[in-house]
Amino acid sequence: MRDNKAARKTKEPRRLSFAHKFSPRGVTISKISRIAIVSALIVFAVVYRSDEAGARYLPKGIYNSKHNLSVSGPGPIKAVSETRVCIFCHTTHGAKPAAPLWNHDLPDGASYKLYGSSTMKSRKLQQPTGPSRLCLSCHDGSIALGAVGSRAADIKMADRGARITTIPSDHASNMTTDLSDDHPISFTYDKGLYAAAKDQLANPATLRNEVRLFNNRVECTSCHESHDNTFGKFLVMNNASAELCLTCHTLDYWVDKPGIAADSIHKTSKKSWNGFDEDPWPRTSYLAKLPNTRGRLTVGVNGCANCHATHSAGGAERLLVHEKEEDNCLQCHNGNVGSKDIEAEFQKDYIHPIYDTTGDHDPVGDITETSRHVECVDCHNHHAAQVGSHEMAKDGNEVSMNLLGVWGVEPDYSRPASPAQGTQSLDKPRYSVVSSAEKEYQICLKCHSSYAFGASPPDDGSDQGQAFNNHNYSYHPVVEPGGNEYCNSKTMEPPWNQGSGEHNTMYCSDCHGSDDPKAPKGPHGSNNIHLLTAAGPGDSYDNLCITCHKADVYIDGRKGSRFKAHGRREHQYDRRDNPLGCMACHGGSLDANSGEPGSIHGSNYRWPDYDGNPGMTSDNMLVGGYITGLYREGGRNTCMADSSGAGDGSHCHTEPKSWP
């Protein structure tokens, strides 16, 4: 409503003769000419007639769209009695601005909260200008829909019969003056922005004709055509399979480029919603209709809209559909679109804690102690991910297809200093950032190392980057192959170290992942402590160890190992003397009797000298658990151990035991 309308004065217009109106300087027009002009005016009136009888002459599609706000409009919001369609936006006289003959009141002086993101390459945004300002005169919900300059009083409006003034707040088309959750507008799209985007935006000089820039700026009308709703949402072109989005956003793995195929699973997948639980795509049903596409919605048809919303986004920064980052993934990866139920893995006893934080993740930020978090996108690049998991011992720790395009860190190792008696000496590696990880461990170590937490590790973590140093006395071969000659085809399960002299590398996720072999691969969740794929029986980790190390050698005592006594009663799991199994001797915590795998990733420990005999080093992960001493005596290895802390009064050895 506008107060100045009532104060307007009306003046009797000066009446001119027909000749004065249409004759230059009063030149007389012949009768035939007058008849021709009158005929032309009649045709003009019919062509631009705005009631139902003249609907076929309106611009394509507007009469049957929600932008027909007249009483004949098909949408819920319409005039109470006004029959003209174009009047809500246009007038032939007194237009402000003159182009495009604008009739609706404008949001003069309005201040909008603008979009902002750490990943945005555009220079500082400005308040809406040009065509966007015209659109917002209705769509910001601050000005009456019927406030038009050609009328002294506002046109009366209703929503489903109930009288309204502005677009009601429960309508998605009311974007309010908070545009921080909407695609940015009124920013310059030029060669400077193109260069800053580093091939992730199209060259503005080669944009498709449908996508128009206005004074080199992106405006509402770059994506929307207010007079034509052919493609739904008044889009200027088909957006099935993200066709409109990709006109500007030329993302890696979505647009074919030299060396990078457009094979993102979120672009190519034909998976559709199975109809169970909540609809993951309530905003995009129009994409399944002609002329966009025919048939059901699929992941590929939704394209960018699987995760992103151009207006009223739940997660404003980066325009995510949902505010909580994980919800954008789990709305599909719950078994109702994706074939595997990853959401169920996050309901287990031990998980990567994706639910603990919201809004802490920043793609251009770094993992720091002050913003320690984990989200799905810390391990997965949703733009790049493709189908495919790794094969144990065969893929050389190369990232699997579902981990493509994720950044990580590469450790640079030096030889640790020789440890003093009873101490461990580990070298703190230097880390370099890898923009697109080539090895799985590079993704893991960006969090599970001093790179992330410096000198202050979390209570439940340690620097695994130090442990995998191939200069340590022992280490699991994650970063580099191992060198233990006894890890061979006689002692290892296939496909590990089956060739002569072969030493494979392994993945972090060979040990850390789901406890269900049929579940999705990867360390999402497990009912086993430390996110282990297997554990037990009981308090031991034997079931995990024998995934790679042959049970008939290391539990039953079959020949093959350098140590000949694995099959002895006191070394077997589930005996009164050894409830820890393998962990009683290998890779346990340096805290006696704890049974925690504190050194199972790698160790560089030197046992104390004993009675004048030199202490041994932690080769073969012989450290922690129940061992209390290892030393060399008379050319033989000698072990002292005590399991009395296990709680049942038992013990391992009544006296030191030696072996060759």
What do these coordinates show?
The structure is a single chain. With 660 residues, this protein is mostly loops. It contains 16 helices and 16 strands. The strands form seven sheets. It has a three-stranded antiparallel sheet, with no helix packed on it. A three-stranded antiparallel sheet has the order 14-15-16, with no helix packed on it. It has a two-stranded antiparallel ribbon with strand order 4-5. Strand 14 and strand 15 form a beta hairpin. The N terminus is likely disordered.
Write a short abstract of this structure.
By secondary structure, the protein is largely without helices or strands. It contains 16 helices and 16 strands.
Overall helicity = 10-25%
Radius of gyration: 36 Å
The biggest beta sheet reads: 3 strands, antiparallel
Shape: elongated
Strand content: 5-15%
* Tally of alpha and pi helices: 16
SS content category:
little secondary structure
> How are the strands of the largest sheet arranged?
1-2-3
Task: Calculate the mean pLDDT score and round it.
Answer: 86
Number of strands: 16
Low-confidence stretches: 1-58
Terminal-residue CA separation? 97 Å
Topology record:
Blueprint: H1 18-22, H2 31-47, E1 77-79, H3 130-139, E2 157-159, E3 162-164, E4 187-188, H4 191-196, E5 217-218, H5 220-223, H6 245-248, H7 265-268, H8 299-302, H9 325-330, H10 342-345, E6 350-351, H11 376-379, E7 408-412, E8 423-424, E9 430-434, H12 440-445, H13 450-453, H14 464-467, E10 474-475, E11 525-526, H15 542-545, H16 551-554, E12 602-603, E13 605-606, E14 627-633, E15 636-641, E16 657-659
Antiparallel strand pairs: 1-2, 2-3, 4-5, 6-11, 7-9, 8-13, 10-12, 14-15, 15-16
